[in-house]
Amino acid sequence: MKGPFPLLAITLLPLALIGGLVMLAWGAGVVGHGAGFVARIELPRGNSPVDLPEIKGASSLPLIVIDAGHGGHDPGASARGYVEKDLVLELARALRDEVEDRGIARVALTRDNDTYLLHEERYRIAQRLDADLFLSLHADSAGSQNEVAGASIYTLSLEASSRAAALFAQRENASDTLDGVDLSRQDEGVSDILVELSQRRTQEQSNLFASLIEREGQGIIQFHPQARRSAWLAVLRAPDVPSVLYESGFISNEGDTMRLASEEGRLAFAEVMARAIGAYLARQEDN
Question: Which sign, positive or negative, has the C-alpha torsion 280, 282, 286, 287?
């Protein structure tokens, strides 16, 4: 058929296709009102180190760095309407205040808001600040097994102390992975763990601090039947800073949840941990 109609059809077809794609994107939440449902994730900062946190306390005191696990797009475990990243941040703040009030040490938090940090960034903060002690706070969920309860204390080891410890380490270490992509981009130094674990004194001090937490918590904090554990946990890799991961309980358990979420429970945790920190630092002075 001759005339302007074929030319008009050729002109309008691309416009119609573009319009259809726009409408599809609108409906899928890519543009328009649905755009609020698109996830925006803060990616690692490349080679630029994170800003160092504020340090509280007298300059003459030793320094402890407290790390609230997870944060940002990484909520950690969740159950009963509670989210790990929020619970452990409140624990970290409570401990910071308790240590500062007692005048035991200077304190810095790796994060004091809903920020995402890689495992390496967390322990690097402790190294850059020349910290005397590093404590990473976490919580867990056992899913439908709501009878599982109690706190656990982890130190670094190439070999996990149990299958449960290995699974916990696998979940925690995976928080640096998003859709199968390793956000930490650590293409060097993974084998250096053998060198790091050769720092026997650091490991001995980590184990000492873990034992003091268990001692001070007896009768106050409910510990898991296997309270002392070890595993290959990326956040504990600093070879020169004694480091412990404290898994504060299971938010899938009602009793643990109430303990972790209540002001009374946070205060009990902070008092126990502050006494353990004080005892640890006193032993370092004696040596």
Answer: positive
